[in-house]
Every structure is written in structure tokens, then in C-alpha cells.
Amino acid sequence: MNPTQNPSALRSKKVITESLLLLMKKYPYAEITVKQILLETDISRKTFYRNFLSKDDVLNSFINTILQDYVDTIQQQQQKYSLLQTLDDIFDFCGKNKEILFILRDNRLLYLLLEKLNVLILNEHNRYISESQKNHLESQLLTEYIIYFNIGGVWNLIVRWIENDMRDSIIDIKKSVIFYLSNIRKIDIRDI
């Protein structure tokens, strides 16, 4: 994707993205073509390719944008980090992006978010750790596995909630997570 800030280019990108999302509501993503996207807009093929490489680039660009909003929220919460705050931030993100999450679900593309979250969250973590931690390879490797473990667990929880059309109570889900985690603390590592 071309990262220009030109107002005309930004408008074109927005129209192209909205067109793709609209088409994804009606047709399977795999069947959508650039030509179809352009037929839904008044954008020329030349303008499309000036801004994007492909329809995948359009979708990836949009996903990157919404995930960057999530990361910005995490950065604002850095001082108040807690499990409940993290879950609140995640559920808020899902509420704000409900329509796109359903579109991705219906097109079996939710995994794209997980792939990007793995990279984004790890990068975000690495921005905040000390230099001594960065230079300690064993600690860094362990931390990376823990981050992936946490992202995977939370992500599966969110996917399940999305699959249930986000009908389940957020409060009940958070209580279940807290209950589960409090029971894990009671496990004696020597018993494993």
C-alpha cells in the first residue's frame, strides 16, 4: 500500500476499502476481483494500483488501521495495565469493529487478525522492556512464548464470542476468565 497522506488518495483508499467490505458482505472474499471493486466505485484501475497492490493489500491495510487503533489504546493504558483493563480494551475494540469482525468471520479470515496481533503485541512489548532484558536471550525467548500463549488464549476466547454473534455477556466471560486464572494460581508446579 502506498502510505501517502494526500487527501485525494486518502479518499480513494477509503472508497476502495468500503467497496471491498461491501462486496465481502455479499460474496465470498476469494471470488471478489479488483474489477468488481472498481465497478462498485468511480475509481479507475490506475488509481487503484497507485494506492494498492491487490485486494489483499486493501484488506491488510484496513486491518492494520483498526489494529493500530487498538495498539494506541494499549499505549494509553500502559500505566493502568491489568487483566481486567486488557479485557475491557479488547471487548471495546470488538464492539467498535463488530461489523468487520463478522465480515471476516463469514469469510473465514479472522486468522489474519491473529497473525497481525502476534507481531503487533510482541513489538509493543519489546518497546517497553529494558535493554538488559533485551540482551538476555533466555528471558526474551520465554517472554515471547508467554506473549504468544496469552494472545492465543484471549484470541480463541474472542473468536468463540464472535462465532456466537457477540451475544454472550461480556461480564460473564470476564468472570469466567478470572475464575479460571485464580484456579491456575493454586496449581503446584511440582505436580506437573
Provide structural commentary:
The chain is mainly α. It has 2 domains: 1-53; 66-191. The chain is built from 10 helices and no strands. Helix 1 crosses helix 4, helix 4 (55-77) packs antiparallel against helix 5 (83-96) and helix 4 packs across helix 7. The longest helix is centred in the C-terminal third of the chain and has 27 residues, at 137-163. The protein is globular and about 65 Å long. The relative contact order is 0.08.
Question: What's the short story on this structure?
Answer:
74% of the residues lie in helices and 0% in strands. By secondary structure, the protein is mainly α.
Give the DSSP E fraction (strand runs of 2 or more residues): under 5%
How many strands? 0
Number of helices: 10
Cα-atom radius of gyration: 20 Å
Major beta-sheet overview? none
SSE class: mainly alpha
Whole-number count of domains: 2
> Which regions have little confidence, pLDDT < 50, spanning 5+ residues?
none
Tell me the series of helices and strands, N- to C-terminal: HHHHHHHHHH
Mean model confidence by pLDDT: 85
Query: Roughly how many Å apart are the termini?
Result: 48 Å
Which range best describes the helical content: under 10%, 10-25%, 25-40%, 40-55%, 55-70% or over 70%? Answer: over 70%
Shape: globular
